[in-house]
């Protein structure tokens, strides 16, 4: 560790800070009851109330609890090739070769990089917004469609009522003028029913009813809108 590089120990993590580049990295996280940090060559040495941990800068390997004892705060002395630690049970001394031995005896444990969930969270939010937008758009489209259908049904009833009330002289042209519709719009409103066919059926109802009443062809013609010549054919 030179004068421009620092290893900083907080309550629960170990950080690296480089004053040359102002780069700050988190080396270890979720530590508990730590009290000292020191360095011997390539090893960062952490002491805590639970014991001694090593972090190998070369391999990024963590070796935990190579010594299980309650180590004291600030009771650490690093020399050229060894380190001395004070505990509630006395003093311990480890050489650099001791640390290498303990480090090699344990399985490799590389600290897991903290996953960046912000991207997943942002993507999830965007996906949720998209789903909500599609759902709202579909719901709005469905409501508009229902309203249009209801409007067409109401207009359909009005057109049929108008035909019945004006059966003697009603025509497709008159219906378009009365309801301000084009011929295509009139057919769309009436759906599968053609306006001419509706007019004809309503007139036939009148003809059948009046013939049962023994009315004359002239009266039936005036009441239904059919010509006398057409009445003779039916």
Please outline what is shown here.
With 234 residues, this protein is α+β, with helices and mostly antiparallel strands. It is built from seven helices and ten strands.
Task: Describe the protein.
This protein has 234 residues and is an alpha+beta fold. The protein has two domains: 101 residues, Thrombin, subunit H, CATH 2.40.10; 117 residues. It contains seven helices and ten strands. The strands form three sheets. A four-stranded antiparallel beta sheet has the order 4-5-6-7, with helices on one face. α5 runs antiparallel to α6. The longest helix is centred in the middle third of the chain and has 49 residues. The termini are far apart. The model has no long low-confidence stretch (mean pLDDT 81).
Search tags:
234 residues, rod-shaped, 7 helices, 10 strands, 46% helix, alpha+beta, 4-stranded antiparallel beta sheet, Thrombin, subunit H, single chain
Quaternary state of this entry equals: single chain
Overall spatial form: rod-shaped
How much strand? Answer: 25-35%
Structural class: alpha+beta
Describe the strand arrangement of the main beta sheet, using strand numbers: 4-5-6-7
Name the poorly predicted regions. Answer: none
Structure summary, number of beta strands: 10
Instruction: Summarize the amount of helix as a percent range.
Output: 40-55%
Distance between the termini: 113 Å
Helical segment count: 7
Write down the domain tally.
Answer: 2
On the 0 to 100 scale, the average pLDDT is 81
SSE order in H/E notation?
A: EEEEEEEEEEHHHHHHH
Return Rg in Å: 47 Å
Biggest beta-sheet profile: 4 strands, antiparallel
């Amino acid at each position: 560790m030179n004068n421009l590089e620092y290893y900083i120990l907080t309550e629960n993590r170990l950080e690296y800070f480089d004053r040359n580049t102002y780069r700050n990295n988190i080396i270890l996280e979720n530590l508990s009851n730590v009290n000292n940090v020191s360095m011997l060559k390539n090893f960062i040495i952490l002491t805590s109330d639970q014991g001694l941990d090593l972090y190998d800068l070369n391999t990024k390997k963590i070796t935990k609890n190579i010594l299980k004892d309650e180590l004291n705060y600030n009771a650490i002395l690093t020399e050229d090739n060894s380190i001395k630690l004070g505990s509630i049970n006395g003093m311990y001394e480890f050489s650099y070769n001791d640390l290498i031995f303990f480090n090699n005896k344990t399985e490799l444990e590389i600290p897991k990089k903290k996953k960046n969930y912000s991207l997943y969270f942002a993507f999830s939010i965007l996906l949720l917004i998209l789903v909500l937008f599609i759902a709202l758009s579909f719901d709005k489209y469905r409501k508009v469609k229902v309203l249009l259908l209801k409007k067409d049904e109401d207009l359909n009833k009005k057109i049929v009522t108008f035909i019945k009330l004006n059966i003697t002289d009603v025509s497709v042209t008159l219906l378009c003028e009365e309801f301000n519709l084009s011929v295509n719009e009139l057919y769309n409103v009436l759906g599968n029913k053609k306006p001419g066919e509706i007019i004809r059926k309503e007139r036939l109802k009148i003809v059948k009813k009046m013939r049962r009443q023994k009315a004359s062809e002239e009266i039936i013609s005036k009441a239904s809108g059919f010509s006398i010549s057409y009445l003779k054919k039916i």
